[in-house]
Every structure is written in C-alpha cells, then in structure tokens.
Amino acid sequence: MKRGPLFAIVGSCATVTWLSLYLQLFLPLSPQWEQVVSALPCLLLMWFGCVSLASISIGLLSVEDCPKAAASLQSEVACAKEDLRKRGLKI
Amino acid sequence: MEFYSILLPTYNERENLPLVTWLICSELRQRSIPFEVIVIDDNSPDGTLQVAEQLQQIYGKETIVLAPRPGKLGLGSAYVHGLQHARGSFVVIMDADMSHHPKFIPEFIQKQRETDADIVTGTRYVRGGGVYGWDLRRKLTSRVANYIAHVALNPGVSDLTGSFRLYRKQACLAALFAVLAACVERTLSRGYVFQMEMVVRAREMGFSIAEVPITFVDRVYGESKLGNAEVVAYLKGLWSLMWR
Ligand SMILES: Nc1nc2c(ncn2[C@@H]2O[C@H](COP(=O)(O)OP(=O)(O)OP(=O)(O)O)[C@@H](O)[C@H]2O)c(=O)[nH]1
Ligand SMILES: [Mg+2]
User: Fold this and answer.
1) Which of A54, A75, A88, B133 is 20 to 30 A from residue A37's alpha carbon, by CA?
2) Of all protein residues, whose CA lies closest to atom 12 belonging to ligand 1?
3) What interface predicted TM-score (ipTM) does this complex get?
4) If you ran DSSP here, which 8-state letter would residue B100 be given?
5) Cβ proximity of B127 and B213 under 8 Å
6) What is the pLDDT tens value at each position of chain B, 244 positions in all?
7) DSSP B30-86
C-alpha cells in the first residue's frame, strides 16, 4: 500500500479515537485521564519532532568527507588532459 | 561477457565530457569490460557536441556513440533517447559533470554479478561513501530531503537522489516509462526528483536493488544549482509519489 493512503487511514482512525475519548462519548474519564488525553496529540508531536531531529543529526554527522577522492581526481584530471592533448583533442 | 552501455546526458559540459570519457575508457579497458559511451547532447550552446565528435575520432565510432537532440528537452526523455541507441544488456546512467567517478562502474558490475540485482545504485550515505565540496548547509539540505523521503515513501535505498546507477536494460526502460507516464501532466521533473522517481517506481514494480558506496566530488567546472525551485519541485514530487 502506498504511504499516502496508509497515513490518511491511520491518521483519521487515530483522530476519531482521540476525539471520542476527549469528548467522552463512550466512557467518562477521571480528571487525571482527561489531562493525559488532552496532552496526547502534543506529546505525539514532540516525540515525532525528537525522533526526526535525532535521525537527521545522526545522518548529518555520519556524512563522510572524502578529500582523498578529490585529490586523486585532481591528479587523474591532469593526466587525462595531458593524454587527450597528445591525441589531438582541441578545446 | 555482458556488454555495457553508458549513457551520458550532457548540457554545457564541454570541459567535463572529455575528462569523464577518458576516465571511463581507462577504467573499463583496463579490466577488459566491453562497453560503449552514448552521449546525449541537447544542442548545448557551448559546443559540447563538437567536442564529442572529436572524442569519437579519438576513441572510434564503436566506443563513442552520438545521440544528439535539437534542443533542451529534459533528462527523462534524454535517457529514453539514449536507450534507443543502447546495444548493451545493461546500462549505466551517470552525470557527465565529473561528480561521478567511473572507477565505481566496475564495482557496480561486480555487485550486480554477485547479487543478480536488476539495479545497482551508488550511495553516498553509507560507510565507504562520502561527499566532497559540500558545506554544512548543503549536507543538511540533503539529509533532510532524504529523511522526509524515508518517512513518506519507505524507498528501501539509502540515497534516493543520487543518479549514478547500473540498470538491467529492461528494468531501466520499464521504470522510465512508469515515471514518464505518471508525470505527463506535471512539468517533467528534473534532476533530483527524476532520480527519486526512477528508484521508487522500479521498486514498486518489483525490481531488486543493490547498493554500492560511492564518493561524490561536486562538479569542478560549471555551477551547481540548488535553489528554492528545486526544493519545491522535490516536495511536489514526493507528494505525488505518496499517492500514485
Ligand atoms: N541531454 C541533457 N542533459 C542534461 C539536461 N539537464 C542536465 N543534463 C546533464 O545531466 C547531468 C546532471 O545534471 P546536473 O546539472 O549536474 O544536475 P544535478 O547533478 O542534479 O545538479 P548539480 O550537479 O548540483 O548542478 C549533467 O551531465 C548535465 O550535463 C538536459 O536537459 N538534457
Ligand atoms: Mg551534478
């Protein structure tokens, strides 16, 4: 299944469940639970933000720099230019 | 021995084309891998085609195949055009701007033989791969773009926007036509979006994909563009891939 419809279905199910709890449609909530339920979306958002931030940071730190590749490319380019000139390439 | 067709789309790559061609020929001839280079030039105003003709004289018509087009018609159709000339059962797609080093082609080939994959894609984001010439902003943009794509698409590859890949020819054609068919009404996606679409569509079609770490040295000649328009195009492309 594509992620779009999947997110839409999961999202709307979650919203409906949460609303029915929050509005106490089926069962009455004690004041403590009322607090928990009303904070839930915010908590979820914070959790997602943290996971994203952590994941991107790890990714960012693990991008390797490769100066060696750049240096060897430089010398290969010099070699290539020399050889191509010998073979009669005019630029 | 399999025959490999290397597709090089060029637009204003007068300086880079001879260098990348030279590197391809030296890397592959050294290992006796049979290949051809197909240059798809879109009538570049800087005279890339004239340079390609000179290269054809140096390396021969068997090795350098010219597939010019009358104008700048975009990357997607450039690959279709190039594939029509391809004699190999495998094709390598790479940029001609020297950010992709031909020394990785033999590694792709070896990986393909080991795994019998339909596609081998180069990745900058695993151990052994890397980038050169990127500032922190560029790295961040790239990581964020990849993260969003992973959440939105679960693509199964670590580097979606890289365009250095080896394809079984059938897999390449099938993915290309799926991409082109899905985007007729949108403006034909360029660069990053296109590469992402190719790999996502290919995976949806059930082609197997393997990865090889590559180093990416940002273009030496010519300028690189990564503006707001690219970012918007990328997000739009992601969105449409989530649904269709
Ligand atoms: N034939 C053809 N080639 C193109 C066209 N646009 C780009 N290219 C070539 O495709 C390759 C990749 O293009 P680039 O401009 O490097 O795009 P990119 O790698 O996504 O972006 P930067 O390297 O960051 O600028 C290069 O070899 C270009 O010369 C086009 O419209 N037609
Ligand atoms: Mg490039």
Assistant:
1) A54
2) B95
3) 0.88
4) B
5) yes
6) 899 999 999 999 999 999 999 999 999 999 999 999 999 999 999 999 999 999 999 999 999 999 999 999 888 889 999 999 999 999 999 999 999 999 999 999 999 999 999 999 999 999 999 999 888 988 999 999 999 999 999 888 999 988 899 999 999 999 999 988 877 655 555 667 888 889 999 999 999 999 999 999 987 555 556 678 888 888 888 998 999 8
7) HTT--EEEEEEE---TT-HHHHHHHHHHHH-TTTEEE---SS---HHHHHHHHHHH-
In which residue are the tokens 């009538």 written?
Answer: B43
**CA of B31 to nearest chain A CA: how many angstroms apart?**
17
Whole-structure pTM value = 0.91
Ligand 1 proximal residues by C-beta, below 6 Å: B 9-11, 13, 40-42, 72, 74-75, 78, 95-97, 99, 191-192, 219, 224-226
List Cα–Cα distances, B23 to A18, A60, B30, in angstroms.
Answer: 60, 31, 11
Contact B243 A4 (CB under 8 A): yes
The residue to mutate among B6, B8, B11, having the most atoms of ligand 1 within 8 angstroms of its beta carbon, is: B11
Do B129 and B215 meet the contact criterion of CB atoms below 8 Å apart?
yes
